[in-house]
Amino acid sequence: MMPTAILIAGSGLATRIDTKPEQRAKGGARLLGVGADATLFRELAHYVEQSGAVLERADDESSTLHALSRGPWDAVVTVLDRDADLQLEWWETVLPRLAVRPRMIAVAPSPSMTLALRATELGVSAVIALPVERDQLRMTLNRVLAAAAETTLPLPPVTPVTVGPYQIVSQGPAMVGVYRTIAHVAPSTATVLVQGESGTGKELVARAIHAHSPRGARPFVAVNCAAIPENLLESELFGHEKGAFTGAVARKIGRFERASCGTLFLDEIGDMSLVLQSKILRAIQEREVERVGGTEAIPVDVRLVAATNRDLKQMIAEGKFREDLYYRLAVVTLQLPRLADRGDDLVLLTAHFLKEFGELYGKPIAAISDRALALLREHTWVGNVRELRNVIERAVLLAEGDVVRSVDLPEDWAGATTRSEMASPGPLATLQEAERRHIAQVLAHTRGQIGEAAQILGVHRNTLARKIKEYQL
Q: β-pairing, 124-129 with 332-335?
């Protein structure tokens, strides 16, 4: 069995540090590095050895080309100096001539945005700043070594259900009841309340109900009640007359009127104030609305579907939601399962998103590694399907070749341990504890930036802000 190897090309004599065969079996990668002086080489050699790899150093371009010809090497660790652009251009001409193109790790004294973009275009997996931090380099090396040892798994065939421009992917038992309820209620005019965590697909279900109803050819109008400021939401829903308030320079038709003969979808209705709740209740009961600043009652014919990720019964007990409105909305209630409860749907959704983003970015993905799939299965998925979609889009963008590997997943997953690797699992965390830890981890990654954290988690920033307050983060 061949040992793992890393090549560092620079000045000085060639040096090799061999590893044991079992290290090769664990890591499975051969790496190449270029451009280190003697001092930096010794530092890198020490860190590389700790990662269970072999380190080899070449003197110049000629010796580097000779080492490459003796490959294959699984990755390149290239140390860039002030002529970084020229060095990257050199690699751009060399790499296409290799039978097996290795991954690249760049080390630079002052990585700039321009350098990072240029390196990414070349296919560099990571850019590390000098002076080298041991933990960062070791983590990067370990990710590369682990990726090289991963087994590729073909993607399963996926047959999604098309709802207009959207698609529903599921073959698991957790969604069977949802499909059955949709089939029963869609032909009616009954009001439906869709409940579920952020990212579970509440709007997609609402669109499916509309599409399979007699109103399918009429408008579907969606309103996110949490995303519109309270002082503007009433105008958005009911419209306003010219001069009704400062800035109302013309009459505006509200969402109720725009959804005439169709479906109005009120998302995150649990975030609506009690005052607006009473006006929504009146519109449902009387089947008419009154524009802000107007005196005329306007008849409306809409099918109402509402959605929330909050516990409305608890809110009723706390006096934060009207009980009479709840029962008007919950003629039929649909509870959507969390992604973690949908079993093998995770694999189907992953395959679906890999195909979708592969086509979008011109990077057809044919397989995923066993380690990457294990990490996906073990993830908490606070943001459910929306978070998975974001993660897979990122993975496709970072993937080298047609296989998504563990290195293409978020960096803070690198130290995650799968159930099969746990020697002693210890006490299991509750769902709330796991969610709290995951949110805290993402917030630490974004340095407290709620907007960026919400995008990573696949939830609305208002939802994340509420959970931060709830968990006292």
A: unpaired
Q: Helix, strand, coil shares of the chain as percentages rounded to 5?
A: 45, 15, 35
Q: What is the mean pLDDT of the chain?
A: 82
Question: Which CATH topology does 5-149 take?
Answer: Rossmann fold (3.40.50)
Locate CATH 1.10.10.60 in the chain.
Answer: 427-473
Eight-class DSSP state of 155: P
CATH no. for 173-335? 3.40.50.300
pTM here is 0.70
Q: Hey, what CATH topology would domain 427-473 get?
A: Arc Repressor Mutant, subunit A (1.10.10)
At the top level of CATH, which class does the domain 342-422 belong to?
Answer: mainly alpha
Kindly report, residue by residue over 334-371, the tens digit of the pLDDT. 999 999 999 999 999 999 999 999 999 998 999 999 99
Judging by DSSP bridges, how do beta strands 298-299 and 367-369 pair with one another?
A: unpaired
Q: What is the largest CA-CA distance in the chain?
A: 90
3-state secondary structure of 133: coil
Contact 292, 240 (CB under 8 A): yes
What is the tens place of the pLDDT at every residue in 73-128? Answer: 777 788 888 788 888 888 888 887 877 777 788 888 877 778 887 887 777 778 88
Strand partners, 58: 9
Residues 6 or more apart whose Cβ sits within 8 Å of residue 364: 358, 402
